[in-house]
Structure formats: structure tokens, C-alpha cells
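If it is no trouble, might I ask you for a protein's amino acid sequence along with its C-alpha cells?
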Amino acid sequence: MNISVIVPCYNEEATIQQLLEAIYGQSYPQKDIEVIIADGLSTDCTRTVIQDFQISHPDLVIRIIDNKKRDIPSGLNRAIENAQGKYLIRMDAHSIPDRDYIKYCIDGLDKGLGDNVGGIWKIEPGATTWIAKAIAVAASHRLGVGDALYRIGGTAQEVDTVPFGAFRRELIEKIGAFDETLLTNEDYEFNTRLRQSGGKVWLDPSIHSIYYARSNLKELSQQYWRYGYWKAQMLRRYPQTLRWRQILPPLFVLALISLGFLSLGWYFARLLLVIIVLLYTMIILSAGIQMSITHKNISMAIGVPLAIETIHLSWGTALLWGLVVKPKVKELQK
């Protein structure tokens, strides 16, 4: 077996079949591909969907293993332990890789472009509602996610991290597996160790996959709270990985909190708080208006600013919280 596609999942009955169909339709030879799904003991029909797909597509090797911890890094590691391929490709159950995804990833590795090769996301709405469409736009807008090239696109180049990357098995033997104490940001931490060992992470914009954004503001807030909190745990170990795009949201939140308290008894602080809020509102509203024109959808004028604000405030607040409060032991052993 040459390729092992490793997939952590939990309660993904709505999307897992789309992923399997995309893997089955890859241009890379099927006989050289196996799919290892680390299922967190799903309580919905995820396993039934996978088993039905196995029956109808017997020429694709699919194996389901238990991931009792139910978190992503432990699922990835259990899948790696059971994988037989020379190359490992990480996928998520809610993603859909393009037909040439595997082929282009392996080509990049064989050409020596990088030690972990991945591509860019085409971000789609997680639902058909107006706010879901706006969230998908915000999740690939520079104002929302900064210079994360796998979200906003760019030229082929060396980067800090890629989602759903491909790497050789010996890389695990060299730098270790995914860190199971980080319940989120495990990809970034893995790629940080890769780069510190002298390796390269390579982004190829010809490699595409569809990624479904969150469908409402509550889910988006929870997602970016999780990202921010676990980014703070990353920074405890790797403070040098902090980027400018990641500094601004917590500084904004800190400014709102500090000026909010100071404004109770200091006029200048109250004035400065009003100016900052007005400037921020003008900036995100202008982004919303621009996107409503680009997408010919008036609801973007309100939806995109709401989504960007949710991303900034959730991520920024959670990062500050994470710098103060460490994960509990039971949380790490989840």
C-alpha cells in the first residue's frame, strides 16, 4: 500500500460519504490507496454510512478504528499507528478534496518541494442561510483571517502550515506524531516541529479541497474560541510562532476592556474608546459593503461584518483567557 489517507471523525453522518466519494474518484490509482477512519465512537449513523460505502465500493480499502478519546490529535495518531502506506495524507470528514488532490500532493513530495505538502481551501457555506453564506466569505477574507494563505490563496511557496497535508511516514519517526495535549492547533504544532527540524511546509495553490464553514454565529464563535484558547497553549511553548495577524484581535479586546474600565472615571479614555469602536465598525462595514457588491448579495453588507466581528472577539478573548488559564488535567485526557 502506497497511500494512507487518515481521517479523524465523530458524528459526521452528513458529510463522511462526500469525502469517501471524493477519495474514490481520485486520479491516483485506487489499488495504492487505503482510508483509515479513526471514529470517536460516533452516536449517529456515521459508521453505518461508512460500512454501506464499503459494501458498494469493495475496490477501495477502508478501515474503521476506534478513537476512544474522541479528539482530533489522538484520532490522527491512532490512524497513523494502523496505516500501512509509505505516504500519509491527513483529511477531515467535512472536507472534499479535488480529483487530483492526492496526485499533486505526492508529486510535490517526490519533487522535494517540501516535507509536508498541502493546498488551499475553497470555503463553502455550511448551510443555505444568508448568515452561513456571509460566514463562508468572512472565513476567506483578509480582514477576518489575515494572511493565512491556505484560506485566501496565493502563489506556490514555503509557509508556516497547511491543512490536510501529505508527508512521508519517516517524518513521524523523525519529529514524532501529533501532540495529544493540544486539542486544537495540532497541525500548526506539528508543522512547527517540522520546520524547527530543518524541514519545509509547502503550499501549492493547484491543490484544492472544499471546506465547509460554520453555519451560524454561535458555531463560529465556539470554533474561534477553541482556536484562540489552544493557540495560547501553543504560545507557551513556541512564543516565536506568534504572527502579526494573531496579535491584533487580542490587543483589540484588551483595549476594549481596559478603556471600558478607565472610561468610568476618565473622559479621555471614554473618547478614545468611542473612536476605536467607530473606526473598527467603519472598517468592517466597508468590507461588508464591498463583499455585497462582489457577490451581488445585499445581506453580505451586514452578515460579513457580523462574522468578522465574531471571529475577532472570540479568538482574541479566548487567546487572552488561555494565556491566564491553563487546561485542566481532565481536559487534556479527554
Remarks:
- The chain has a mean pLDDT of 92.
